[in-house]
Specification:
3 domains, DNA Cyclobutane Dipyrimidine Photolyase, subunit A, domain 3, Rossmann fold, Serine Threonine Protein Phosphatase 5, Tetratricopeptide repeat, about 475 residues, 5-stranded parallel beta sheet, mainly alpha, DNA-binding
DNA sequence: TGAAATGTTGGGGCG
DNA sequence: ACGCCCCAACATTTC
């Protein structure tokens, strides 16, 4: 019997993996493959990917196989592997980013190879949702209602008890040779201290969700308390499925562990769905404002300001604490992400795309859809975005959400024992910066009336792949 | 998933 | 006792 290829992508797990289960059902021997490609670009994400692949390979070895690792353009690598192994079918779970969809399109056109894609990564498949009038949802709440109305996500599948792996002598590249880990300098120490990539650790986090849900409704905006699941990088790489997370939360809700908390938590899970949906239907989301009049915003190109923001030395304690937490751990609390993003876009008037690039490079949970949609949300140029006049005051935000200054002192050691009022040299005056931003937005407002055709959905094949500049190494 | 400016109200000090 | 002023507290409007 000819083997089939199982192409691992953002589904680095064995449990509740729909395409993997379909591959197993064929009864044919399986060749598991991961192809490192141009989408695996961000520095922190590459660190995570390395360890997640190592974890997956271990799990596969316990079942008697090993992962074939390659790098390059997936359609070429997979065509070579199929030819060398005699496989005529490739199973994979779909991805919904423009570049991923192009890959799938090219693969499905290869002669003699059958690409079998499954919808697995999201609860609501993005092509399935339209408004009653046939349009696309642009506002979160109606989207949430409509996707919830589709019914509960499927009950998670168990990991296959056994897998029939193909014997082969296909060339594989050693994990260590793929260059996913940083060297000289090795900046990953804080990441190692903070995270355990891989499916077993991810499943454990779902088991430990109860205290998070109990405190979530009241304290989820408190970076000092950090009542968060920490699931985002695991979800990004598919070490757990969204269905597993959904059912994990609902199960706890049924057992009384925080009723309001579960609802608020699942709402966040659906923001992930909404972002993927927006990217699927508006492939230019990573690079162009959804509201075209924002092309006319008078952005600043002050490199020194950008560097100060990246390095956590803006002189605003809450902003600097967030940027240092990001640098050190590859993660930032969501409330602080909003604060630092508002500061970059509004106080410094630096294009949201610069911030998005930095986040894509430094976040372990960097995700093109979530990142693009969220930055556009902050900038006011996106769907259902924060209104442009909503300018965060960093000090007020700190008072509200880090009332004792614990978060700030944790990440800014020079403030230990001092009040944040003694923190030196803010690079801008917030009051003046706010005024400048509001005046700049008047330009945008003027364009809305006169100019600028609305953005309509376009086919992903016409869009450019996002440009994630690997700036982390250069810092 | 704001903040600042402006408006309104009401209690207390005081003539 | 009463009205006036002050201003904190809260509400509304505006950006």
């Amino acid at each position: 019997m000819p083997p089939v290829i199982f192409w691992f992508r953002r589904d680095l797990r064995l449990a509740d993996n729909i395409a993997l289960s379909r591959a197993v059902e064929t009864g044919r021997p399986i060749i598991p493959v991961y192809v490192v490609d141009s989408q695996d670009a961000g520095g922190a994400g590459r660190w995570w990917l390395h360890h997640s692949l190592a974890s997956l390979d271990q799990a596969l070895e316990r079942l008697g196989a090993s992962l074939v690792l390659r790098s390059g353009a997936p359609e070429r690598v997979l065509a070579d592997l199929a030819a060398a192994s005699g496989a005529d079918t490739i199973f994979c779970n779909r991805r919904y980013e423009p570049e991923s969809r192009d890959q799938e399109r090219r693969l499905s056109r290869l002669p003699g190879i059958d690409l079998v894609g499954s919808d697995d990564n999201l609860i609501a498949t993005p092509s399935a949702l339209r408004t009653l009038s046939g349009g696309y949802y642009r506002v979160f709440t109606p989207f949430w209602k409509a996707s919830s109305a589709l019914g509960e996500p499927a009950t998670p599948l168990a990991a296959p008890a056994s897998l029939d792996f193909a014997r082969h002598d296909l060339p594989t590249e050693p994990l260590d040779s793929l260059g996913l880990l940083p060297r000289e300098p090795d900046w990953a120490g804080g990441l190692r201290d903070t995270w355990t990539p891989g499916e077993p650790a991810a499943l454990q986090l779902i088991d430990e969700l109860a205290p998070v849900l109990a405190g979530y409704a009241a304290d989820r905006d408190r970076p000092d308390l950090d009542v968060t699941s920490r699931l985002s990088p695991h979800l990004h790489f598919g070490e757990v499925s969204s269905r597993q997370v959904w059912h994990g939360a609902r199960r706890l809700e049924a057992h009384g562990a925080g009723l309001a908390g579960a609802e608020a938590f699942l709402r966040q899970l659906y923001w992930r769905e909404f972002s993927a949906y927006l990217l699927y239907n508006f492939p230019q989301l990573p690079t162009s404002p959804l509201r075209p009049e924002f092309e006319f915003f008078p952005w600043s190109d002050d490199e020194e300001h950008l560097r100060a923001w990246q390095q956590g030395r803006t002189g605003f304690p809450i902003v600097d604490a967030g940027m240092r937490q990001l640098w050190h751990t590859g993660w930032m609390h969501n409330r602080v992400r909003m604060i630092v993003a508002s500061f970059l876009v509004k106080d410094l008037m630096i294009p949201w795309q610069r911030g998005a690039e930095w986040f894509l490079d430094t976040l372990v949970d960097a995700d093109l859809a979530n990142n693009s949609a969220s930055w556009q949300w902050v900038a006011g140029s996106g769907s259902d975005a924060a209104p442009y006049f909503r300018v965060f005051n960093p000090d007020l935000q700190a008072q509200k959400f880090d009332p004792n200054g614990d978060y700030v002192r944790r990440w800014i050691p020079e403030l230990a024992g001092k009040s944040s009022e003694f923190y030196p040299n803010p690079i801008v005056d917030h009051g003046e910066a706010r005024k400048r931003a509001l005046e700049a937005y008047d330009v945008v407002k003027g364009m809305r009336a006169s100019n600028a055709a609305p953005v309509s959905p376009v086919s992903s094949s016409t869009s450019e792949p996002p440009c994630a500049v690997a700036t982390r190494e250069a810092r």
